[in-house]
Design a protein that fits this description.
426 residues, mainly alpha, two-stranded antiparallel ribbon, 4 strands
Amino acid sequence: MSSGLTQALQNFHIDNSTPPREQSLDHIRINRQSQKSDNNLTQEEVEDEYQKAFQSRRETAQYLPNDLEKFWFECAMHYSQLYDIPSGAVGKSYIRNLEEEVTKLASLEVQSERLLIFIKLMLHRDKGIKKAKDVKMLLEKRLKYWAEGNWPILFQEFRRCRVKTNKTRKNQPPEDINKNFAKMVLEGNLRSANRLITGRETGGVHEPHTEIESNGGFKTVIEILKDKHPEASPVNRDCLQIGTEYPPIEDIIVTSAHVEKMARRLRGSAGPLGGDSVHWRHALLRFGSESAKLRESIAKLTMTLANKSVPWKSIKALMSCRLIALDKQPGVRPVGIGETLRRLMSKIICEITKSDLEKVFGIDQLAGGVEAGIEGCIHAITEMFQEKKSQGYGLLLMDATNAFNSLNRQTALLNARRIWPRCSRF
């Protein structure tokens, strides 16, 4: 692949009849027409295009949060560690209840807040209960309250047990490092364990109101994060194929085998509420027939999201992220950690539809499923540079400032509808 890409780059004709600087200005010319406001779509035109693409109107109405959403927000704002799912009959009972909640969400009977609150209310830690048999008794009591619909007692217990914490891995004592290292290894998180024990896990997470240097001055982390999330650029006609028909959308079939395969690859910490990758991996793989039924329910939920236009109110909590600000040393890198269940379903959809993108991108986008594409590009450019550097050639490295957050998501969604139709509704 390396030699083929090198040959393609070498065949690219460069006209040397003009001085290098004038030539670069001719070839890297900004399309001024695309910046004119009359070339941008109005919001009404965007909505019409959305209707053509998805046969439904985009939801824009505002509504007041109900009691369930208010409590979801309260749970998300207060950190609490979760127990591991206990073994035995109590653990299986928890999995059966979890499967029922996923099934209700798949049929759109309930909002996603209910499923995520269930996980939080059942497994949040009580600092006075640590032994395995005591944890089982506690979970059994909570499951009983849930079945009876006794939410006030469960909410009251959560408020009593919640704690404030500012834990960070900076300047940990050796005994904490050893404990965290052992935990990571047992969970299969070998990369992070290696970084922790070798002292390469630097940086850490910024607190929201910490002041740091930015562009010659000082700003709080919250101010920097707001700067990194500007208003979307306008929807430009040049970025869309206006007037052409959209391809039909083929429904996706998801099986429990897809769920099991991706569950084994699941990694990462928890989103705002619904448990981390270890929780979902254990729930989906370690409880026999109960886990099998849960995999079936998640397959149904994935197909619901992929094959239907689902009301935003039903899945808003499932699509939420926990925003953290990583220390880039220097600078701030915003990272949104989504719910683990959502990440699992995204992996499943990508696994099923990735061949669609491979055909569309070819060698134009080497990160789009091409085997070792980026590595091949690096070797090809290195080989070409070694051949041409003695002739006065060089390399120009360009990086757009905050490019990802400056894109228009409506434009991206409408283009996905054309080039990746099977995944566009998800």
